[in-house]
Amino acid sequence: MKVVLLAGGFGTRISEESQFKPKPMIEIGGKPILWHIMKEYSYYGFNEFIICAGYKQHIIKEWFADYFLHNSDITFDFTSGQNDMIIHDQHCEPWKVTVVDTGLNTMTGGRIKRIQKYIGDETFMMTYGDGVCDVNIKELLKFHKEHGKLATLTAVMLDQSKGVLDIGPSNNVKAFREKSQMDSAPINAGYMVFEPEFFDYIDGDSTILEREPLERLAKEGQLMSYMYRGYWQCMDTKREMDMLNELLTKGSAPWKVWKD
Predict the structure, then answer these.
(1) pTM of the full predicted structure?
(2) Residues 6 or more apart whose Cβ sits within 8 Å of residue 107
(3) Model confidence pLDDT, tens digit, residues 14-51
(4) CA-to-CA distance for 38 and 98, rounded, in angstroms?
(5) CB count in 10 Å sphere of residue 151
(6) Which residues of the chain have pLDDT under 70?
């Protein structure tokens, strides 16, 4: 089964880094966050990826073009007057990666529509290229197959991070308390599964995935949520990037389910 990764946006909220590279190529622990997401799927046996690129898409292509070289032990032999390259050991994952230029200003739904020919008439998975999670992909897929609907998204609880205020009509603070689980709200964390009929819900480049297609699926009763209360974290800001790096440095990154 193929995994589609959205990696074409401008990443303006983390412009300190994204001015030089696409946000999914910003590194966590020396590897792009996109690589971390792919490692998650690969851990569960899903090794075929389609990357919806856009902004600075050439950087993604060049990174994968050099990936085998950078992860192999190689002898460069010039003694015969030629450039002979001998590969000894290579340490690459068994991945098949298709990088597609889906346009600079294409919306999220439009990017998915553009890669339809690479999916064919198959169920496929999709997630955003800037968020990591320790969800069990096989359990997610099992849930999707059992309910028989067209689409499944992974829902996580977004905790409030501040104290909660009860404010009266005259702007007086009637009560203050610390946040609790009751203050959490479920959000779409990505890690979706779609049947191929989903492409019919996307009109073109201007379609935003999170609006018309998902709203229509919900209205028709074809969108299910896989409630997950484990770890999920997006990387929208430099603070979040630093936090993810710190977790890796300490050896306590929840999404790192694979072994080195």
Answers:
(1) 0.90
(2) 205, 206, 207, 208, 209
(3) 888 889 999 999 999 999 999 999 999 999 999 999 99
(4) 13
(5) 21
(6) 159-184
